[in-house]
Amino acid sequence: MSRGPAPADEPDEEDRPLSTFRSFATLHLHFAARALERYTEAYYRREFGLKLAECRVIGITASYGIATFRQICDDGDFEKSYASRLINTLATQGLVDKKWSQVDQRSVSVTLTRAGRAMHRRLHAAAGEIDARWTSVIPEAERAILLRNLDALTASARNLSANEPEQSEAGEPANDKVRSIRSGS
Predict the structure, then answer these.
(1) Per-residue DSSP letters for 28-84?
(2) Which of 31, 41, 56, 145 could join 52 via S-S bond, C-beta 3.0 to 4.6 A?
(3) Structural domain boundaries of the chain?
(4) pLDDT tens per residue, range 46-105
(5) How far apart are CA 64 and CA 78, in angstroms?
(6) CA distance 13 to 17
(7) What is the CA radius of gyration of the chain?
(8) CA gap 136, 175 in Å, rounded
């Protein structure tokens, strides 16, 4: 038994309004992160002459005392080539010392110079001020909850990312479901 054309009061699939993404927490977090990143990037360039990523390398290095190249890549979520350029730039500016391992000549450790330690103190104070201004719209009693929730969401995102299928060499998702959606089948 064939179903005839859809009744006039039911719009075809193509004619129905599309759903909005605006209700998703992921979109809200993305917008907040991008806006804050744009602000802090401009602020650190203007006040310190450093890119935000360079500030992150300084902060990561300070947190370890002696940071390995891998720690900087992992903690900063940097590609190896980008991390290498950042470290070289900071070394040229006299903010970090880069030392090759005696045991493994491919391994590098990074420490802050005296100027780097002074810069870290200035950056840390500025970051504290930015953080206080940004979170000032949230009641103080709720800020600890925000941090716990952000940590949980970060862990969840990393877990999702770790379980994501690899992309093909052409940059296309290796997922048949995504390919079928893109091809319209």
Answers:
(1) HHHHHHHHHHHHHHHHHHHHHS--HHHHHHHHHHHHHSEEEHHHHHHHHT--HHHHH
(2) 41
(3) 22-163
(4) 999 999 999 999 999 999 999 999 999 999 999 999 999 999 999 999 999 999 876 665
(5) 17
(6) 9
(7) 24
(8) 42
Q: How does DSSP classify residue 174?
A: S
Q: What is the pLDDT of residues 106-133, one digit of tens each?
A: 688 999 999 999 999 999 999 999 999 9
Give the pair of three-digit tokens for residue 108.
């590098």
Q: Which CATH architecture has domain 22-163?
A: Orthogonal Bundle (1.10)
Check if the beta carbon of residue 61 is closer than 8 Å to that of residue 111.
yes
At 12, is the pLDDT very low, low, confident or very high (cuts 50, 70, 90)?
confident
- 39: Cα within 13 Å, side-chain hemisphere: 12
